[in-house]
Automatic annotation (TrEMBL):
<keyword id="KW-0032">Aminotransferase</keyword>
<protein>
    <recommendedName>
        <fullName>Probable branched-chain-amino-acid aminotransferase</fullName>
        <ecNumber>2.6.1.42</ecNumber>
    </recommendedName>
</protein>
<dbReference type="InterPro" id="IPR050571">
    <property type="entry name" value="Class-IV_PLP-Dep_Aminotrnsfr"/>
</dbReference>
<dbReference type="GO" id="GO:0008652">
    <property type="term" value="P:amino acid biosynthetic process"/>
</dbReference>
<comment type="function">
    <text>Acts on leucine, isoleucine and valine.</text>
</comment>
<dbReference type="GO" id="GO:0052654">
    <property type="term" value="F:L-leucine-2-oxoglutarate transaminase activity"/>
</dbReference>
<dbReference type="GO" id="GO:0005829">
    <property type="term" value="C:cytosol"/>
</dbReference>
<dbReference type="InterPro" id="IPR043131">
    <property type="entry name" value="BCAT-like_N"/>
</dbReference>
<keyword id="KW-0663">Pyridoxal phosphate</keyword>
<comment type="similarity">
    <text>Belongs to the class-IV pyridoxal-phosphate-dependent aminotransferase family.</text>
</comment>
<dbReference type="Pfam" id="PF01063">
    <property type="entry name" value="Aminotran_4"/>
</dbReference>
<keyword id="KW-0028">Amino-acid biosynthesis</keyword>
<dbReference type="GO" id="GO:0052655">
    <property type="term" value="F:L-valine-2-oxoglutarate transaminase activity"/>
</dbReference>
<keyword id="KW-0100">Branched-chain amino acid biosynthesis</keyword>
<comment type="pathway">
    <text>Amino-acid biosynthesis; L-isoleucine biosynthesis; L-isoleucine from 2-oxobutanoate: step 4/4.</text>
</comment>
<dbReference type="InterPro" id="IPR043132">
    <property type="entry name" value="BCAT-like_C"/>
</dbReference>
<keyword id="KW-0808">Transferase</keyword>
Amino acid sequence: RIAYVNGSYLPHGSAAVHIEDRGYQFADGVYEVCEVTGGRLVDETRHLNRLERSLNELKIASPMSRGALSVVLRETVRRNRVREGLVYMQVTRGVARRDHAFPKPGTPPALVITAKSVDMSKGDANAAKGVKVITLPDNRWERVDIKSVGLLPNCLAKQAAREAGAYEAWLVDKDGFVTEGSSTNAWIVTKDGVLVTRYADNGILKGITRTTLFDLCAREGVRIEERQFSVAEAQEARECFLTSATTIVMPIVAIDGRPVGNGAPGSIATDLRSKFHEVAE
Ligand code: PDD
């Protein structure tokens, strides 16, 4: 495998960043994960728009123009011979002697890009069975709309899910409403067949898969409500599912050990999963 690191394509095993990189010391950086199908990046424009927004919110300089970044992304996919898989890109505020305040203007941001092949049949197998989630308190900071590499609460939540034999942890705010998963957006389907997902303010990451699913639902005539929902409402829902670039649409069959619907993957989630790539660009 080949990784792109600050202007060079290097063997993945020996690619490295400096010990005083601010991403390493302070989690002072942002990232994107983008699906690859047929050798193409899915929803590249939306991912690059969100990367730009995350960088702007944190006042990190862009490492290169959008056009140049697009070329490097494609080249990294090509050099790794990825047809179906994922691309990871990360930008940090760069290398500087440790000091919490920003380094002096002109310090170049650090850019790393990797690409890997993923066997998509594993996701399809999970989707055919449906996955389980647990719920945990959402103890993250109040700017999770920024796709920052500071993911410790997310890692702890995902690990707790693993240890409970679940696929994902749904995070619950202090008022009892589900915000999102540790690395996915959260959805339910009401008895009337209306999709419900939390509105995207600073309390969730506005997923690209979420946005593209809005497009698909508009095409299919499926109604969506953007509002909060509680764990109890989710457990009583007709269906539940989660979305992300890595999972697409993944049906949920149990929440905290209580079956959702009839305990099998929902037909609406399954249908949307099968059609997703018809609208993704
Ligand atoms: N995670 N919410 C959180 C907290 C996420 O980390 C992600 C993505 C999403 C879904 O966003 P999108 O549809 O753009 O992938 C929601 C990526 C996949 C990750 O961290 O690996």
